[in-house]
Every structure is written in structure tokens, then in C-alpha cells.
Amino acid sequence: MKEKLEIYESNYKNEKSIHMSNNLISCTILPELGGKIASFYHKDKKFELLFQNKKHEYMKPDMYDDFSLYDASGFDDCFPSVDEGFADFGSEKIKYPDHGEIWSGCFDYEIIGDRVKLKYASRLLPYTYEKTIRINENTILIDYKIKNTGSEVIDCFYTMHCLINCEKNMILKFPSETKKVINVLDSSFLGKKGSIHPFPVTQTYEGKSFLLDHVKSPDSNGYEKYYVMDKIEDGICGAYYPSKGIEFVTKYDATKLPYLGFWVTEGGFRGDYNCALEPSNGFYDSMKSVYDNNKFLKLEPNTDFEFSIELSLISVTD
Length: 318
Known about the structure:
Elements: E1 6-12, E2 15-21, E3 25-30, E4 36-42, E5 47-48, E6 75-78, E7 85-89, E8 92-96, E9 108-112, E10 115-121, E11 127-136, E12 139-148, E13 154-156, E14 159-162, E15 164-165, E16 171-173, E17 180-183, E18 196-198, E19 201-203, E20 209-211, E21 222-228, E22 236-241, E23 246-252, E24 259-266, E25 273-280, H1 287-293, E26 297-299, E27 304-315
Antiparallel strand pairs: 1-2, 2-3, 3-4, 4-5, 6-14, 7-8, 9-10, 10-11, 11-12, 12-27, 13-26, 15-25, 16-22, 17-18, 17-21, 19-20, 21-24, 22-23, 23-27, 24-25
């Protein structure tokens, strides 16, 4: 069957949107909310991958707002950092916002043939941020270009923040070489920040088995965040939903995004039940941490940082 592609402007929860659809999937983009992908839907399976805004409309954030007070849904980008904090910029110290700058940015956009091109000029630093989105069969393809337009090096890192729905029996798919993870939040299950655990099975501080490639039930009232200890070479990760017969696969260039974090809330954060596999080129989350570990991007003047991410929903026959 010939692929039937549709792209048109619309409205999603009272927010300006761009809808992209073919025979297999659809996605919804919110250009004025950081270019967020708000929906990724598999038609045959009637399956929505992305965690949804629990309210009937979106609130518009300002750049230095607290991310936790907003919707925390869908797929948005963290850049130039994740946590709020200070970065060196020439002879200055620049304060980076919570969750980065991009999520609060209003993007210009144009529909060009079979794709949507979104562009944002930073209000914080001399850089432009572009992403071009298209769909093909069961896949969303995103090409990024971040350009330093100034005369000073920009210390920064990109982190993918794609919040997907959880279900108790889902299986998390980490890159094949994952052997150890480092806990980066104090946890009632995994212990103190900085503790290192074998993957995929470890022990809680009470000596009970803990499966790092599964999620717990939403009434466990927990949340965790950990990073794969070493650089990733195999840039493939995702999740399998056995009750839905569907697998979510993320593919990316691990030479560009060599670190991988994982966030999950099982009711412990605002009652939400979602998780996110987070490819990044910073280790990890804050500028202080990436400086301490010397693992971040130094974006040179008049230089582009380009990379691509593919998100696929694959129907699985048992």
C-alpha cells in the first residue's frame, strides 16, 4: 500500500500544533512549546507512546521557571543543560535554566514538502537551534543542528527527554553493552546518590532483588534516576509493551550522544507513571557534574553540532 502522508496545522489541547500522519502512525508537534512532540500514536494498535499532559491545556513557561510546575509530558529537548546552574562563558558566568532553555522557547516553523523545519534563536546565548521532523512508515526521524553564532566557546550538553507511558510488565531495552549503572538521585530502593549497581539485577539497601530493566507498579510511590556507567557504543534503546504487542525503539549516533540516563516515576513524582531513556552528551544533568567529570560538549564559535534521532513503534507478533 502506498504511504498516505498528511501534514497540517491544527490545535492540540488549546495549543497551536502541527499534525503529521501516514497509514501507520501519527505525531503531533507543538512549535510554541519548545517544538515538543506531544503525541506519537500507532494506529493499528491504538497505542499512544507518550505520557500525556493531564490538564486540558498547556501552561506557557518563562525561561527560568521551575520545570516541575508544568506539564512534564511528551518529548522535549534539554539544552544547554538539564539542571539549573552556572556555566563558564568567556569571562562570564551564565545561569542555565531548569530543564534547559529549549522547552520554554517559541519556535518558528515551516512545512517543506514531507517535513517540518523548526528554528529557535536563543535568548540566553549566541546560538541557533534547529530541528527537522519527518515520518516514514512506523518511524519519526529528527535531524538536529545547533550552531554557535558567537565568538566564545559554549559549554553545554544535549539530553533527550522523551517521557513514555509505563505499564508494570513492560521491559526496558538498554544498549547491549550495559553492565553497570550509577544512581544519581538519593533513592529508597537504590540508596545514596553515587552508588553503583550491576545491571540488570541489583540489590536494594534491604537486600531485595531489584530489576533495573523493569518498572514497578504505580502504587510503589517511587522514582529513580540512573546512568549507564560507561560510554555507549550501540546507540539503540527502547521498551517492549507485551500487553500491547508493541516495541518502542530509539536509534541514535552514540559517537555524538555517548552517555545514557534513565528516569522513572512510579507515582513518586506528582503521581505520574512514566519513564524516559535519555541519550546525552553530558555526564550528567548539571554543569557542575559535567565539569567535574569533564564530559560535555564544547561548542566552538561558528561551529555546528549535528545529530539525528529515530523513534519507531514496531508491531510485534508473539
